[in-house]
Amino acid sequence: MGVRTGLVSVTFRQLAVEEVVEVAAQAGLSAIEWGGDIHVPLGDLPAARKARALCEDHGLAVAAYGSYLRAGSVDREEIRTAVTTAAELGAPRIRVWAGNVGTADAGVGDRMAVTRGLAELADVAAGAGIEIAMEFHRGTLTDEVDSTITLLLDVGAPNLTTYWQPPVDLDDRTCLEQLEALMPWLSTVHVFSWWPSNNRLPLSGRESLWRPVLDRLAAEPREINALLEFVADDSITQLATDAANLHSWV
User: Start and end of every Xylose isomerase-like TIM barrel domain (predicted)?
Assistant: First the structure.
C-alpha cells in the first residue's frame, strides 16, 4: 500500500478550510487530518460536511479527525459527539491524547483511568467503523514506547492504534528504534523537523532521519500516513518545499 502523504490542518490554523484544502492540493499531498480546535470543531456537523466535500472536490482523502479528547477525562456524550463528527467528516480514525500526565509522574489511578477511557473510546468508535489513534506526545502516557505499548496491549482493542512523531532532541537512531517498536500498531506519522529543542527547520534539516523513516514505512504491506506539520515560519511556501522533499524521499 505504501506511504500516503498529507497535511495536518492545524499547521495552518490561520487559514480558512477552503485555503487549507487549496494549499494541500497545490503541494501534491493526498490527505488532510482535520483539527477539532479551529477547522472542524467538536459537534459542528456542517463544518465536518463542508471539509469533507471540499476534500472530495480536490481529490483529497480525510486521514483523521484530530480531536483534543484526553482519554480518562471525557464523558460518554463527548465521545459520541466526536464519533458523530468524525463520521460526518468521513474520517477513518480519531486522534486522541492518552491522558494529561506523563509516564514518569503517573500513578496507578492515572493509568487505570486512561486505559478505561481508551477502551470506552475504542468501543464507541468501533460501532461506527472508526479507529482511535493515540498521539505520541510528551506530557501523556504515550511519551515513551514501553508505556504506549502497555496501553495498546492492556486495552486490546483491534481499532486502537498509535501515531508516532520524533520527540524533542531525540537522535536519529533512537527515533528509528521507537518507530520499529511501535510499527505493529502504527497508523500515522506526524512529519516535521525540529532541532534543537522545538526550533522549526525546513524538512530537509533532518533528512538523515526522515529518509530511513519513510523507507521503513514504505516496507509495510499497509498504508501509513505521513502528514506534514509544524512547517517553519508557518509558511505556505515552505510547505510546498517540504512536500516536494517528502515526495522525493517517498
Answer: 21-164
Which residue reads 532532541 in cell numbers? 169
DSSP string over 125-148: HHTTT-EEEE---TTSTTSSHHHH
Task: Count the domains in the chain.
Answer: 1
Domain CATH number, residue 198: 3.20.20.150
Provide the domain limits for residue 170. Answer: 3-248
Please report where in the chains the cell 505556505 appears, as a residue. 236
Is residue 1 over pLDDT 90? no
Model-wide pTM > 0.85: yes
Element (H, E) at 117: helix 108-126
Question: Which residues lie across from 58 on neighbouring strands?
Answer: none
Go through 15-46 and write b for each residue having 16 or more CB atoms within 10 A of its CB, e for each that does not: bebeebbebbbebebbbbbbbbebbbebbbee
